[in-house]
Amino acid sequence: MMTERAFTEREGLSGRPWYKHMIYGPSLYNDYGAEAYPGVDDAIQTAKKANTSESWQSVQHEIHRVARVISQSASVLSGGFS
Protein backbone atom coordinates (compact mmCIF):
# COMPACT_ATOMS: atom_id res chain seq x y z
CA MET A 1 0.00 0.00 0.00
CA MET A 2 2.81 2.42 0.84
CA THR A 3 4.57 1.65 -2.43
CA GLU A 4 1.45 2.41 -4.44
CA ARG A 5 0.98 5.67 -2.56
CA ALA A 6 4.58 6.61 -3.31
CA PHE A 7 3.64 6.63 -7.01
CA THR A 8 1.28 9.55 -6.42
CA GLU A 9 1.87 13.29 -6.16
CA ARG A 10 -0.27 15.80 -4.33
CA GLU A 11 -0.28 18.19 -7.33
CA GLY A 12 -1.57 15.50 -9.70
CA LEU A 13 -1.04 15.46 -13.45
CA SER A 14 -0.44 18.74 -15.22
CA GLY A 15 -3.78 20.22 -16.17
CA ARG A 16 -5.65 17.47 -14.28
CA PRO A 17 -4.86 17.78 -10.59
CA TRP A 18 -7.52 15.22 -9.64
CA TYR A 19 -5.40 12.42 -11.20
CA LYS A 20 -2.68 11.84 -8.64
CA HIS A 21 -1.01 8.67 -9.96
CA MET A 22 2.14 9.42 -11.96
CA ILE A 23 2.70 5.94 -13.42
CA TYR A 24 -0.64 5.19 -15.06
CA GLY A 25 -3.72 7.19 -15.86
CA PRO A 26 -5.67 8.77 -18.68
CA SER A 27 -3.87 10.64 -21.41
CA LEU A 28 -5.13 13.90 -22.84
CA TYR A 29 -4.70 12.33 -26.28
CA ASN A 30 -6.29 8.91 -25.69
CA ASP A 31 -9.92 8.90 -24.59
CA TYR A 32 -10.25 5.11 -24.46
CA GLY A 33 -7.45 3.81 -22.33
CA ALA A 34 -4.84 4.46 -19.72
CA GLU A 35 -1.30 5.41 -20.57
CA ALA A 36 1.90 4.52 -18.79
CA TYR A 37 3.48 7.75 -17.55
CA PRO A 38 0.54 9.91 -18.65
CA GLY A 39 2.19 13.20 -17.69
CA VAL A 40 5.26 12.39 -19.76
CA ASP A 41 3.14 11.19 -22.67
CA ASP A 42 1.02 14.35 -22.61
CA ALA A 43 4.09 16.57 -22.42
CA ILE A 44 5.75 14.79 -25.36
CA GLN A 45 2.62 15.04 -27.51
CA THR A 46 2.31 18.74 -26.68
CA ALA A 47 6.01 19.36 -27.33
CA LYS A 48 5.82 17.63 -30.71
CA LYS A 49 3.04 19.99 -31.73
CA ALA A 50 4.53 23.19 -30.29
CA ASN A 51 8.21 22.33 -30.79
CA THR A 52 9.38 25.12 -28.51
CA SER A 53 12.11 25.18 -25.92
CA GLU A 54 9.53 25.64 -23.17
CA SER A 55 7.49 22.65 -24.31
CA TRP A 56 10.55 20.38 -24.27
CA GLN A 57 11.49 21.71 -20.83
CA SER A 58 8.03 20.60 -19.75
CA VAL A 59 8.90 17.09 -20.94
CA GLN A 60 12.05 17.18 -18.81
CA HIS A 61 10.02 18.36 -15.83
CA GLU A 62 7.51 15.52 -16.21
CA ILE A 63 10.32 12.96 -16.51
CA HIS A 64 11.84 14.38 -13.33
CA ARG A 65 8.49 14.04 -11.53
CA VAL A 66 8.18 10.38 -12.57
CA ALA A 67 11.79 9.65 -11.60
CA ARG A 68 11.12 11.17 -8.18
CA VAL A 69 8.08 8.95 -7.48
CA ILE A 70 9.95 5.87 -8.70
CA SER A 71 12.79 6.71 -6.30
CA GLN A 72 10.29 7.18 -3.48
CA SER A 73 8.72 3.82 -4.26
CA ALA A 74 12.12 2.13 -4.32
CA SER A 75 12.85 3.67 -0.94
CA VAL A 76 9.58 2.30 0.43
CA LEU A 77 10.41 -1.17 -0.86
CA SER A 78 13.87 -1.06 0.72
CA GLY A 79 12.41 -0.03 4.08
CA GLY A 80 13.25 3.68 3.85
CA PHE A 81 9.72 4.80 4.68
CA SER A 82 7.40 3.24 7.17
Automatic annotation (TrEMBL):
Protein name per UniProt: Transferrin receptor-like dimerisation domain-containing protein
Domain of life: Eukaryota
Transferrin receptor-like dimerisation domain boundaries: 1-77
Alphabetized GO MF terms: carboxypeptidase activity
Organism the protein comes from: Aegilops tauschii subsp. strangulata
